[in-house]
Write a structure and sequence with these properties.
The chain is mainly alpha-helical and about 200 residues long. The protein contains seven helices and five strands; from the N terminus they run E-E-E-H-H-H-E-H-H-H-E-H. Strands 1-2-3 form a three-stranded antiparallel β-sheet, with no helix packed on it.
């Protein structure tokens, strides 16, 4: 016979008390919300995080691009097919590095994780995978040589002429994001606190 003991949310089965554990919880576990009002990350940390992300992506992309050009120069159907595979591999690598990782690591790429900064939404909505990909790859890598200097000028204008305390880059403003100093949050402790209430 199974009896529920009200005092501590445990169950009794054949005179053995069974207390539910965290692994017994069924259903989706929601991730804790990030500190959207956190301290704005310094421009130096952001710049070096950007350089690390570029240092990871560009050498691999250049090798793949060189191999693609070499295969195409040799000609032939098989080499064309292999060159296409190399191009697709570059795109998949970029999607993983600049879209998947920030989405799974709560707004952090490898460079941002090393410098303890993260991207958070300014509109209190969860940031979609596509917005990470647009910000991190399309704007900062693909058209970054033009977009980043323009955004830096916009940031300087907001900071020194408009005297805004929390000025953000132009592409962050357009995508409703900002970069803050990362705070470590233990998910398990947060879930345990919620379940105890």
């Amino acid at each position: 016979m199974v009896k529920k003991i009200k005092k501590n949310r445990s169950y009794s089965y054949n005179d053995r008390n069974i207390k539910p554990t965290l692994s017994d919880i069924s259903g989706p576990i929601e991730e804790p919300l990030l500190d959207v009002n956190g301290e704005t990350a310094s421009i130096v940390k952001r710049f070096f995080a950007y350089l690390i992300d570029l240092a990871i992506y560009l050498p691999i992309a250049f090798v793949f691009q060189y191999m693609t050009a070499t295969l195409r120069a040799q000609g032939g159907a098989e080499n064309e097919r292999n060159a296409l595979y190399m191009t697709i591999s570059i795109v998949i690598f970029a999607v993983l590095l600049y879209g998947y990782l920030p989405h799974k690591w709560q707004g952090q790429t490898i460079g941002k994780k090393l410098f303890k900064v993260r991207i958070v939404p300014t509109d209190n909505k969860k940031i979609e995978f596509s917005r990470y990909l647009i910000r991190e790859f399309l704007i900062k890598v693909t058209i970054g040589w033009a977009a980043v200097p323009v955004s830096a000028l916009f940031w300087l204008y907001e900071t020194y002429i408009l005297k805004r305390k929390d000025s953000i880059m132009l592409y962050d403003r357009l995508l409703n994001m900002r970069v803050v100093a990362a705070t470590e949050q233990a998910k398990v402790e947060k879930i345990k606190e919620d379940k105890e209430k």
